[in-house]
Amino acid sequence: PYYVDCKPPCSLDNIYDKVIPSTSSLKFHDIDVKELDQIFIKNKKEHKIIINESETALPSEQSMEFPVLPYGKRHGFVYNSGGFITDMAWLSQDGSEDQYLAVALSQYFERPSDSHLRMFESESHTACIEIFKLNTNTLKFTKLQTIAHSFGEIWNLKWHEGCEKEDILGVLAFVCQNGSFKLTEITVTVSYT
User: What's residue 24's pLDDT?
Assistant: First the structure.
């Protein structure tokens, strides 16, 4: 006799459309690699990598496997992003060998004290988020897409794994240097390398 039929918000139909605004109101367009290189400058210099006694130079946007060490082989790799990483977040998929990584990049990589990296005043400039797919069995690491934006640097990347929609990998939330908070859908159909 004292039963209350309460439906939590997550059980409602189409809750995804209520949380995430329609993409028709957003202003975005696809760009090619040439245009991206003009608005977001990556560090083209090779980075010197030393692991134990093994030394190598790693070019921008390249990876290398860990060398065989005297005490055995370690499974993993090192990747040169070509930018200053301000944050990253993993999206794990239950029962899948594929995991996804969102990496926030700054083009101000020369000095960590660069005034463009400050967090105390609002600033807008071009930065990027790169989405990678990692196969956990083979350690194949593939860049799926690059998202260039004008929100300044971003921090506190978080995947909202509960939002499920066809052709959407997930929803990425982050805090922007221009003082805003953003939620953006990450599609799985777009593939840039």
Answer: 45
Which residues are CB-contacts of 72 (< 8 A; sequence separation ≥ 6)?
Answer: none
Helix, strand, coil tally for the chain in percent (to 5): 10, 40, 50
Other CB atoms within 10 Å distance of the CB of residue 149:
20
Q: What CA–CA distance (Å, rounded) separates 103 from 90? A: 9
| 49, 56 Cβ separation under 8 angstroms | yes
CB atoms within 10 A of CB 80: 19
- Find where tokens 């029962």 sit: 95
CA distances 81 to 88, 107, 176, Å, are: 12, 11, 20
By CB atoms closer than 10 A (0-12, 13-18, 19+), residue 174 is buried
With contact defined as beta carbons under 8 Å apart, do 174 and 88 qualify? Answer: no
Q: What is the pLDDT of residues 2-24, one digit of tens each?
A: 666 666 555 555 555 555 555 44
